[in-house]
Amino acid sequence: MTQLLEVRDLRVQFSTAQGTATAINGVNLSLEHGQSLGILGESGSGKSVTARTIMGLLDMPPAKINGGEILLEGEDLLTATAKRRRQLTGPVMSMVFQDALSALNPVHPVGRQIGELYRVHRGYSRKAAKAAAIEMMDRVRIPAAASRVNDYPHQFSGGMRQRIVIAMALALDPQLLIADEPTTALDVTVQAQILELLKEQQAENNMGLILITHDISVVREVTDQVAVMYAGRIVEQGPTAHVLGDPRHPYTLGLSQSVANEDLKGRRLPAIEGSPPDLLALPRGCSFANRCPLADEQCSSSAPPLESVGAGRTSACFHSGKVASNVAYSN
Amino acid sequence: MLHTAIDNDERAVASSPIMELRGIKMHYPVAKPMPFAPKKVVKALDGVDLKVLGSQTLGIIGESGCGKSTLARVLSGLEKPTEGKVLFDGVDINELRGAERAAMRRNIQLIFQDPYASLDPRMTVEQILSEPFEIHPDLVPKGGRKAKIAELMELVGLNPDHLGRYPHNFSGGQQQRIGIARGIALNPKVLICDEAVSALDVSVRAQVVNLLQDLQRELGLSFVFIAHDLQIVRHISDAVATMYLGRVVEQGSYAQVYDHSSHPYTQALLSAAPELRQGSNTARELIMLQGDPPSPIDPPAGCRFHTRCPIAQPSCSASEPDLEETAQGHQVRCFFPGPLAGRLN
């Protein structure tokens, strides 16, 4: 069976007034039907650019795809025509954005925005599209959907708006859903509802889910697989429980330690010193070397490749074997 | 060291309230849709009593719209409350005028959420950090300011050689350090951190949290720490207050509020945070709240939480419970306080 999604050696750069910024520097990903993958990273790590490249939403220029392949069920999206892409967006893959208010059109009722998908892709009549929209709103559990179908986005609360965006994304039963920080703007109570909804819809429809977030606890909660990104590369990848429970890359370890937990009360948090590298001038060696407690000369001269470190796991570190035992972040 | 460090014995003595809110109401008028429409107000704070103890941290938790940020503005004197008193060292800050008010203002400083937006992009770091001393010229003589500013930079972990740079030359974490340096420049007693670490990346957030705790120890500062990251609030706070729709519904020590939460809202809020469920020694079962908080324009009658409360009884919509002490120092605003476990159907 072909993979649902396969990304091979993807490279994306942005030209800026200050020079060329390398946003994605050779990313490989794969996702099977019904699987969920978390992409974990800080700002500037390239996680959102990865999603936007897959969806074909990059503004080019300033962005430029410098190489790689994105195969959706074996079909290369980077060479597909604009028309073919439009056919795929919606029925095969779709996306949920962080800011639901700006993802919705403020001058159209939400029912019309959901219904538009059915009208364009399935040729439904206005009436049938509206009925389908109500059904969709029911499915994402918007109370009294039939009476709210003619309401405008501003009449909904933040959580309800995100449900509408999810309803639009799920309307044509896609096989791949990319959710980019879907709960970052929401309160924890509403976040719990939205994550529950995403998990449930994913399981029911055997959909592939890519969840992009900076929040390690959200990844733990939702996904089977995780890819940790740093400065445009994946530094560690594998089953979520194993990667986050027993990291094989010093950055993953640092991330999981710097989140406070009950036992650290009254003590200093183990923090990763310094800040991520400048994307305009990435170092020649490992991008994490200047913050890494394990770094040596080898790390600053050449970049470590992503190598297997156990069943279904990869890590891009020359010292992956030493990570668990010896790394201590300053505190 | 530019300030005298206080040791632990003094810290215990210093733990009398340095700031106190008494019956604070902050109502904002809402624009009328039509000229003769009834007058409406948003009740952002609706009767809040809180104490900030000396050299301690008070954490404030609650959903957006519960009044956390309004509380920060009222505490810092940026906003005059509709009703109630804001006491600093026993004196109502809104009664002070002129020189007295100016002198009081330097004791209470605010650190904002967005580090870049809170720094003037056209000023160098040196100009930004010398501004407080120009406003309060009697604190440090003109000749000593340069040295003092360099000292501040070192205190927050920045290189004093970078004083000539502009805010955009710094990373987000460094910008927040500049904001903190400005906040502590005048030796304040109280530092109000309104989502001060929320915009920072996880790895940088830990550095800034450590910095804040170091400064508290060295300078004997009191913090009011407002954040939506519930694990960080637990980590940094001595006392915690939960707010819901403009009211405090539970307060106590961090251990009482987090580990022995008694109000159903606090329990539901904490249970919704995955970072707390995962990093906890006590098992928390997810209590899913339905819907969103009601509008602060027309808060529900009776207990404000009854519309979403999993254990609400008919009596909860009839009258509002008072904030009552259930244990030493632990206050809860609920007719049926106590753990929810076993009480849900």
TrEMBL record, chain A:
Top-rank lineage group of the source organism: Bacteria
UniProt keyword Transport, yes or no: yes
Protein name, UniProt field: ABC transporter ATP-binding protein
One family name in Pfam for this protein: oligo_HPY
Family: Belongs to the ABC transporter superfamily.
GO molecular function: ATP binding; ATP hydrolysis activity
SMART domains given in the database record: AAA
GO cellular component terms listed in the entry, alphabetical order: plasma membrane
Compartments it resides in: Cell membrane
Keywords from the UniProt entry: ATP-binding, Cell membrane, Membrane, Nucleotide-binding, Transport
Domain ABC transporter, residue spans: 7-256
Coiled-coil boundaries: none
Membrane protein topology class: Peripheral membrane protein
Provenance organism: Glutamicibacter uratoxydans (Arthrobacter uratoxydans)
PANTHER family tied to this protein: DIPEPTIDE TRANSPORT ATP-BINDING PROTEIN DPPD, OLIGOPEPTIDE TRANSPORT ATP-BINDING PROTEIN APPD
Gene Ontology biological process terms, A to Z: peptide transport
InterPro entries to which the protein is assigned, alphabetical: AAA+_ATPase, ABC_Ni/Peptide_Import, ABC_transporter-like_ATP-bd, ABC_transporter-like_CS, Oligopep_ABC_C, P-loop_NTPase
UniProtKB/TrEMBL annotation, chain B:
Biological process annotations from GO: peptide transport; transmembrane transport
GO molecular function, one term: ATP hydrolysis activity
Domain ABC transporter residue range list: 21-270
Keyword Transport attributed: yes
InterPro entries with a match to the protein in the record: AAA+_ATPase, ABC_transp_ATP-bind, ABC_transporter-like_ATP-bd, ABC_transporter-like_CS, Oligopep_ABC_C, P-loop_NTPase
Keyword terms, alphabetized: ATP-binding, Nucleotide-binding, Transport
UniProt xrefs under PANTHER family: D,D-DIPEPTIDE TRANSPORT ATP-BINDING PROTEIN DDPF-RELATED, TRANSPORT ATP-BINDING PROTEIN
Family membership noted in the UniProt record: Belongs to the ABC transporter superfamily.
Protein name: ABC transporter ATP-binding protein
Provenance organism: Glutamicibacter uratoxydans
